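hi support,

uploading two proteins for the ticket. first:
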Amino acid sequence: MRPPEAPRRGVRHGQGDFSGASLGLHRPEPAQGDVAGGPNLQTKPEEPLEPWRSELRRGLERLRDGEFAAAEAHFARAHRLAPDRAEACFALGRERLRCGDLDQAEALLREAWRRDPSLLSAAAFLARCLGLERGDLESARAVLSEASAHHGRVAPLCVVEAELFLEEKRADEARAAAEQALADETAGEGAREAARALLARVHNQEGIERASSGDAESALFAFRRAAELDPEWSAPLCNLGAAFEIVGRAERAQSSYERALGVDPDNPTARFNLARLLRQRGQSGAALAVLERGWGPATAGAVEPIELTALRAELYIEDGEVERATAMLGEAVASAPAHPGGWVDLSGGWLAAGDRLRAEDCLRIALELDPAHVGAKLRLADLLVREGRYVEAAQLACVAQATDPAGAETIRCGHPRLQPGKC
């Protein structure tokens, strides 16, 4: 099962951002000014904010509106006005991390953490920058250890610790850390939401491992749990459909793919799997409608995922529109996809068009990009057998089987594609 290329990891507000739109999470202190549990009373006029705090407030408002560039500009002005204030360093450092400017992000987050050790968000984001972005897990854990020594294993630190464990594929420890974050009664909703999202990633990955090892029935439970924990993430629903399809429950598979597209209409794996399933069930028209939804003259500037282009071309060929299909495939080849899976998908389209030479070229390009690609080897072996070139075909098939027996079996069975964890 070839998962799609994973997107670049980055800090995305609203996903794992346990500080939310605040200036940063400090160690909680007792509330001041409460009178017998009633409302706080204002005893004097509110003083005007200092200029740097006004910039921070405007930046937070822009964040809530999703205007990240405008938010960063406000935070940069706040930092210029008050470079010695931890909140200003943290706010700008977090945005620089989101943008991928790791050097500035690390420097700013370190400065925020140094100036105010009670600013837990600064420690957490610094550990995330070091461990997840730079790959320096040892330094990341040192930051978390120092923060935990002062404040205990509070939720924001447990969340990042779980992320680090997940990065190392230590699922059990990741689950334990995320569950500890959820059990923290002092945790804000942002930290709890991040912990639930991490648990969803753990269950999704476990489901993929179970399905890939042949235990699709058990994978169903893992994908269901992941979808429950993070209902705004479409991948577990897509994978639930794939697991249902593997065990022969086509109706449930179709429903799950449709639910995934309801959450994220642009999910290419769910769209591919649904169209493929409809085609297998004799509903080629419905399959083509799924693929064409969102891809037409109105989206001429958009780049359609290669696997969708190839499958759409095959459906056009079945409908007798060979010239239209070959034109699409030619444009896709001209875009020169950088990943081998794209060339493997294109080979299927050319083969459906009856052009075995171009199909073979695509498969050999895939193997140049990734000499160990099991799908390219098996499909090239199948193509060579059709042409009577048995010796090379046997060599390719044997190497693919020896390298990845489970992957080879998945391809031979024609199983749907699974979608990996988000970053």
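and the second one:
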Amino acid sequence: MMRQIFSLLVFFALTCVMIGAARAQEHAYKQSNSIEAIKQEVIRFEAARNRALVKNDTKALASMYADGLLWTNPRGQLLTKDEILAEMRSGTEKFIAIRHKDRHVRIYGDTAVLSAYTTSTVRYKGITSNYPRRFTNVYIKRNGHWLLIVHQATPIVANQAAP
């Protein structure tokens, strides 16, 4: 009789362990899929932002940029949301074509970091360039919407190979 009770307890304990392990695996799978879904959401937001840049749609961009935006351009100038939008409205800066590759996205709760290599064509003060750059964008999610809060672009030196 004791042997049967012991066997039942061992069976019950093993069953609990197996159920717990299965739930943990299922949670990890769901969390992994959730992170991938958020990454795709950020990539779609970035694509919409890029379309607005090329169209020079400053109204759409204003809704995509956080009020505290810090925009560091490849010349090392730090611009606010109002300043970068004013440059676009005036034609000082015009995005002609956007080409990104080697894109990486990281998710940290309601914050996303996207980094990529770009050879986008940009006209600044009448001079058109498409030299290679790396950029990093930081997004925050507020009220269910992603907003760009930080943009940093850095020119790539001539002797550095493209990805």
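thanks. also noticed: The CA atoms of residues 124 and 141 lie 30 Å apart.
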